């Protein structure tokens, strides 16, 4: 359900009434663009898991280098 457009309060420009200055609207987000908290959390978890895997691999490679 899209949110109602919000009005932006702006200072009137020369020759413009205060009502005309408030006439602009913020762009609305489509449902596809709305923030998806669950998706963001899954992405963060996946990035952290990948980071842990890379840290393990680096330690393994460092051990191999020390042994040779």
Low-confidence stretches: none
Radius of gyration, taken over Cα atoms and rounded to an integer in Å = 26 Å
**Outline, from the CA principal axes?**
elongated
Distance between the termini: 62 Å
Order of helices and strands: HH
What does it look like?
This protein is mostly helical and 68 residues long. It has a domain at 34-68. Helix content is 51%, strand content 0%. It has two helices and no strands. It has helices at 18-21, 37-67. It is elongated and about 80 Å long. The termini are far apart.
Give a quick set of tags describing it.
elongated; mainly alpha; single chain
What is the topological layout?
Blueprint: H1 18-21, H2 37-67
What's a concise summary of this model?
The protein is mainly α. The chain is built from two helices and no strands.
